Amino acid sequence: MTDIMGAFGAFGGTLLVDFDAGYDEARAVFNGMIDRRPAMIARCTSAGDVATALAAARAQGLEVSIYGGGHGVTGAAVVDAGVCIDTRGMKGITVDPATKTARVEAGCTWGEVDAATQSHALAVTGGRVSGTGVAGLALGSGSGWLERKFGFVCDNLVAAEVVTADGRQVTASSSENPELFWGLRGGGGNFGVVTAFHLQLHDLGPMVYGGMLMYPAEVASSFVPAYRDFMQSAPDEVCGGLAFISAPPEEFVPEPVRGRPAIVVLVLYAGPAAEGEPAFRALREEVPPAIDLTGEMPYVAVQQLLDPPNPKGMRNYWTADFYDSMPDDALEVLVAKATSPVSPMSQMILVPGGGAVARVDEEATAFGQRRAPWNIHYLSMWPDPADDERNIAYTRDISSAMKPWSTGRVYLNFIGDEGPGRVEAAFGPDKYKRLQVLKDEWDPTNVFRHNQNIPPSGS
Fold it and tell me: Are 157 and 198 in contact (CB under 8 A)?
């Protein structure tokens, strides 16, 4: 342990090892199924600290993980017996309202970014849970409620400050290291540690039309096709998604239906708040909701709607797929299985595509699927380890039953560790080869491998 400590030299942050106060809290991640014990947690305060920690880990021959928000289901933020480079202390956010840009450091969460940008009535696509880390979401391309209007997070990335595998601090943008910039927009943390993100912002808020529409599971066979048809012709400003859930034990839910299967539409209109109600009126009139919680509200409140049903520390198993279409027979399968959850905490989320995302050229970023009109996130969550097998089997069953309609591609932030073939399929063969060439240049020894990994071409 002395050798490890000595390797860090003039580290400006805090070093934690097993049995230190705060060690167990620092190593905990969102997914309660992950229980890893790093040899060292290096809590960084600057890009220089990141470079120092990375050099120390390499000098000791230790594996490296990067902790940003820690919300990913794989738990890749922590690594057994290795060095966890913890950026959560890097919280700087600078908003320039004149250029509508923001510089956001790697330890920030989307709730923190939303609060800072909304003070200027500006926003960018962010996480669907406010505790989601900026870094992991952005590098994995960055799906969020606003994507149909403003594109993915990676579409709004204008520059990235990066610490490379060999310790250099470089900038990636369209004019500086442009190929690295291409790879960072969807290629994950495979090429370096991004210590700051420069993001393009857009006019929105602070008040928007948003909220939730709730329906009993009994109307799913008529309502879900109605939602599909509604979204196929909806303008870009109509954002949000549909989720199969269990009705929460809240006062706004009638007591007899609490805990029973239900459908929720998260509503967000990315335009003038006054235009939101008419934009969603046809959907509400087609199948009237049992509970209507929509209206004018702060954008930051919409971004926090899924926080209560997604607490840190629950056991999670996720998978996902993109779909070219969602025909009636596919919806019949989805409705039958998604309205029979094993855990009341599980959420099967139907995310509509199209809009701004689909208008970006397929080759513009590393992200591998822009044209699919639907993305489904199969998210199972439960508290008791004794229920692991049952919940995992349920999630695999519903996703497998929907495979006949999938494109074969996947949004990697929505899945666990499903093997290298799934990672390659996410990008497609041509992009994957291009990403491997990039890996050869920036991380030829695969230092950054504790992730949805793209290995060097010689591996």
Answer: yes
Backbone angles phi, psi at 169, to 5 degrees: -110, 115
Start-to-end C-alpha separation, the chain: 31
* 218: its two tokens: 């009994």
Strands 40-43 and 83-86: parallel
Q: Compute the distance between CA of residue 448 and CA of residue 438 in angstroms, rounded to an integer.
A: 13
Q: What is the pLDDT of residue 254?
A: 86
Separation CA 120–CA 204 (nearest Å): 9
- Specify the pairing of strand 193-200 against strand 207-216: unpaired
Best CA proximity match to 375, nearest among 326, 333, 323: 323
Nearest residue to 243 via CA among 276, 217, 269, 205: 217
Q: Pairing between strand 169-173 and 238-246?
A: unpaired
d(CA 239, CA 234): 9
Comparing CA positions, the residue from 192, 99, 197, 121 lying closest to residue 156 is 197
- For residue 385, the Cα-to-chain-centroid distance in whole angstroms is 24
Q: Which amino acid is at 386?
A: A
| Mean pLDDT within 168-181 | 98
pTM here is: 0.96
For the segment 301-312, what is each residue's pLDDT rounded down to a tens digit? 999 999 999 999
Pair of tokens at residue 31: 């997914």
To the nearest whole number, what is the mean pLDDT of the chain? 96
What is the mean predicted confidence (pLDDT) over 10-39? 96
At residue 311, the 3 state secondary structure works out as: coil
Alpha helices in 362-458 (DSSP H): 388-401, 420-427, 429-442
Span 324-380, pLDDT tens digits: 999 999 999 999 999 999 999 999 999 999 999 999 999 999 998 999 999 999 999
In this structure, the number of other CB atoms found within 10 A of the CB of residue 165 comes to 19
Q: CA-CA distance, 413 to 142, in Å (whole number)?
A: 8
Please give the order of strands across the beta sheet that includes 14-16: 14-16, 40-43, 83-86, 64-67
